[in-house]
Amino acid sequence: MVYDQESYLTRDMMTPEDQRLEQAQSLFRAGKLEEAKALFSAIAALNAECGVALQGLGYVAGKQNEYEQAVLYLTQAQQYLPPSLELFLQLSYLCKLAGRHAESLSWIDQGLTLVPQDYEALSFRTGILITLGRYDEALMHLRGMISTYPQDPQLYFQVGQIYGVMGCLEDEISAYQDALALKPDALQVRVNLGVALRDQFKFTEAQSQFNQVIKLDPDHVGARTNRAQLNLLLGKMAQGWKDYEWRWLDGTASHGIEGPRWQTPKSVKTYKAVHVLVHAEQGFGDTLQFSRYVGLLKKLFPKIDITFRVQKELVSFLKPNFPLVNVVSEQDALVAYDAHLPLLSAPFALEKYIQNIPKLDQTYSVSQIKQQEWSDRLGVKTKPRIGLAWSGRPTHLNDKNRSISLDQFSDLLSEDCDFYSLQKEIRAEDLKVLTRESRLKSFSDEIVDFSDTAALCQHMDVVISVDTSVAHLAASLGRPTWVLLPHMPDWRWQLERMDTDWYESVRLFRQNVADEWPEVIARMQQALRQFIQVNTQK
Hints:
The protein is α/β, with parallel strands linked by helices. It has 24 helices and ten strands. Helix 13 (221-233) packs antiparallel against helix 14 (237-244).
């Protein structure tokens, strides 16, 4: 952010306005933003067409994260200043921060008319196109950059990333290989290549890429965490849990809990009584799935006091299921503790006491009061009751692969059952389908938290769910749960098998072809018919 202007004027030749502008710029460079803002404002009040003062106000607002105000000031400033790439680039940058991506693209395009081959501006334009989801244009733009900068491996890497978002694995892999041909020690490119190879089920080649990176940089977090998830996917639990501990170092996961980590005692006979804080760290489903390790921890070490810190939406459901544990919301003030344990670190911490993935024997229950509330809402049962959850949180990194539009279930809903939506949040496009789909009843307005969803699940004969928290909730209750999985599943579901060691009541329905849900739903529909037939005969 430089808006000093080269001046051939000596100080005694400057106008009072020039001198005040110089003073305001000095204050800005010194980080005295409020003082700079006050002086720029005073100058602009006297001269509404002082572009430098307006530009200065925009830069101050940007530094203070007031992006809308910054855009307003700089838009005004550019009317009174000579066109410059710097100004247009800054306007584009601030528009992007303000979420005004179309305007951001327009400003950067204006800048590129002044300096067509500027690398920074060209690169920023790539990012805007990606943000707008205009992937084909971004690829065309990058290919133009490659013609100008053919030896830049970063450009090929970006091409690969875009192909990855588009699901074009062959093209993604080819682009990463082009990048590595130029820079063999580009470690992040190798990590991405490993992930793409994994998604092609080329596990040995993927493992080789991760191992090469770790050999060159033993502390490379991306390689460690991706190797962890690959090993867990392949059922190599000991190696997987060990590498999975690196997840805290890659900048994408944090828990904000200070103090020593809890270490498993060498013997259950010699451990000391301490207060351990076990804390949730990822999504609702992860908390539900791994919460049973808290029960195992208490069972193994009964003298330990445990506080279990979870998302507030789960407290009312989990608290009654852990009578010997203090279940609290993560929004509550932290209690005093001697050591802490991130929830998904529990398998690694307890590995000497368990073998691989245990069939954890804790099954959760729902209070009789909640069960009766939902029994009254549902009324008399006349047909098999089927619960349906077809989408997870839109913000989930893998949402496009795991969530399904409601209209794809229309054939399934024709079966002779009573269908109930288990969704608390319903997307706009699905709400339109739900409004006209009388065969699917919804209680989304009456679901307050997971204790309500659990009570509703408890009344279902089968819960059908994509890989989201509802699947873990129903399975933890011991309800028959059918889970729809994408072609490349999350590591916890491993490969090929129709069952899982995590839950005895779960049946897995996997995609045979990536992004193809109709065939999976057709198989599930046939299974539902068989279920109805068997249960009608009882």
